[in-house]
Write a structure and sequence with these properties.
about 900 residues; 33 helices; about 55% helix; globular
Length: about 900
Amino acid sequence: MSALFLSSLVVGVCLGSVPWSRQPISLATIASATPPTAHALANGLTRYQAGDVLGAIQQWQTLVSVKSSHGSLRTDQVAALKYLARAYAQVGQLNSAIASLKDLTHFYRQTGNDQEWGRMLTEQAQLYSQLGQQDQAIALLCGALAEDDIDENELVEKSTCQADSALAIAHRLGDRVGEAAALGSLGNIYRLQGEYEAAIEYLEQSLAIAEKIPHLSYQIAALTGLGNVYSNLAQRTDRQLQYVQQTGSPSLINTQTRRANQYNHQAIHYLQTSLQLTRAQKDPVNELRILLNLVLPLHHHWGRGEWNLGNGDGLVSHSPRLLLEQATEILNRLPDSREKAFAAIRLATLWSLIPLSAKEEAELTAYCVGTEMNAVSLNWLHQAIAIGQRIHDSQAMSLALGRLGHRYECAKEYAQALRLTQQAELLDSSQETRYLWEWQAGRILRSQGKITPAIAAYEMAVKTLNTIRADLAIANRGFQFDFRDTVEPVYRELTELYLEQARSSSHTPIPTPSPITAALQTIDSLRLAEVQNYLGDSCSLPVVSKPVTLIDAKTAILSTIMLGDRVAVILSQPQPGKGLQSQVYWIPANRETLVQTVNALRRQLEKRSDLTNRYLTEAQTLYNWLIRPFQARLQQSSIETLVFIQDGILRSLPMAALHDGQQFLVERYAIASTLSLTLVDPVKLNPAALRVLAFGITEPSMVEGPIYFEPLNYVQSEIAAIQRLFPGSEGILNQEFTRDRLQQELAQNNFPIVHLSTHGKFGIDARDTFLVTGRQERQRSHPAGGKHPPAYNEKLTLNQLYQTLRQLKRGNTLELLTLTACDTAVGSDRDALGIAGLSLQAGAKSAVASLWQVDDQSTAQLITQFYQNLHQGMSRAKALQLAQQSWLKASPNSHPGYWAALILVGNWL
């Protein structure tokens, strides 16, 4: 478990939150209260300031529980409710805090105090955000918008917010303080969702208002929020760098590294500015938050050897260790609270991370890097547990106990580690963190050689993850790039345990389901989680309940699974009355060798000018690893179609190009791939009903970046051939190819096939994936200051395509999405995942797409032949196979780079 993940988890829950509209508890209201109630208010305040928050809550609860004769709240009860809301939040009782704020919101609305009504809505939103309920928080701040009204590239304006939302109320009243608070809260919420551009815009708006009022506390809050956004951007970019490094491209790696450094610089700038203002205001709680959030950016800055940052105040020359010492001094002075407990856990993590070198920090996916049993870290975890016990905060106790158990796990003191971990499980009421302790228990039990209980613990963790994975994707898109460290290993380690069980049970009764079947089901769950993580939103995946019925006697499934340094290949075939029967083969090469071989072949396939056929060495090696172990069985079963469920880097390679020494794999088998059998809907095409909606670009194009694309000269003839094949089809070119036109055509007509002949780029997440349309927009300013700014083509992002294709005429189904002239990066398994993700996001039953750019003349010939085969009633897989075979027959010595780029994903029938 990555130490960075847990530290960022704690920050997201607590330290990153800013009390935008909260004022400190004071004696102001007590003076105007009657003697009995004044005593209760003052007594509560005395206990609160002494650190007895629970005692203060008891006093104030007594006061608000006595209803007035007319049922309305008295002034002293209003004050007590405000105090209660803050006190409840201090001890982690967020639902009780929200209930108090709701009572206040109702009171202010009934009494016509709209300003306080709006501000209470903002406070409620902050608490809902801490609970992870970001949609509810946004609804309170601006109101829930209809999904069709949301454009990911545009901010919600104040004027478009619902009238009873916090931002609209503040804007209507001219309440600049309330407006700054609502905008700042929106910024923090969008940060937690990973929508960093929107977060920056809202926080900058809040900062601008706070500087004009002026309001120092809100300036600090906005600056801190901006620092946290850029810190998150730096972390996300570092995570993305792991994928970029797979490509081996020095320019991409340098660009990504430079971007991470820039974000880190900005984080330090905003946080140190905020820290200076906070110290001037003498606000120790805010100072602690900022110090802890500044440590990692400053540590990364030092670790990269960057010494040219700073604005003369000398702060950047301070060591991260000095900041931790300053944070420690402040923390020791604060009264008990949830925030203090979380800060103690955060300190324990940071004291372990700071001694790490840059290389060690880059290897944080190893469970025990940076988690030595040092006395400082252990002391803070024990303090966090004690604080949680005193304030009755089970979530704080659970986090501290779990982290402490992890330390003992790393020290190989397994009995103590398991005891602490199980205590964390029992106390944890949040599924988003409980799976971590279930996983940790599984690892510890496995280390003790207790395989059966270890499997049970892992199964619990997977069950929890399967329940929450969509929520994780929606709630925090920044979590996407922690996925590989914090979610993926749970599935893979359980899969490995099942396969170990299958090997050891060869002489014992086979459990039901069999270990191999259980392994396949587990890795299948991972693949569903992967695509949901890639998409990063609420797209519901169309899962088929009984996928085994898809497989006929002429079809075989080949699943590849990467487990640690080993790679398994599993052949599954249907057996009458027995379901799928599977056979496991472990390839005789480690994972690194496999990755190098796949990347070498992929690069050679793209070099169509290679006249020496250098690709054959790797193409035959991969055939020997993936196909030859099952060759006799495939031939004996008269298999005609191979469906690949690939893992990792293997997704970036077309299996059609594998070679047995005599012929390509596609010359023997029809080939398709899918992320999961449960995502395939077994519906055959009706050739008589096929009509195609085809869009294309023949002209040169350019998108913001700038990124230039060559003209596609053969697209017009390609679309003309489609229209001849399928009467009633429509072809739309160049400037007429817009998102609006696509949406209009789909809403008014029935097109089972959508064909897009345009440039496309598949990136490492859904936001980097786009298609190019023909619509051009002149930029308002030219970066070089010229008189004629460039006209950029519109990008059709994956999410926009999803929204557009949802406009299908009622009752219509998108059977096939065809994408030509698209491109994925060599060596990036995330890019290749994007093709499947895009087709699923678009609601298509299957997709045909290119893995790399091929000259459009070759693509036009292959696609035209593919459609001719579909028109004759062939299955999708057979139609693509015969199109590629026809090319080989016509050009027997042609390089596979011309024909192998096209792959079929999804339904192969």
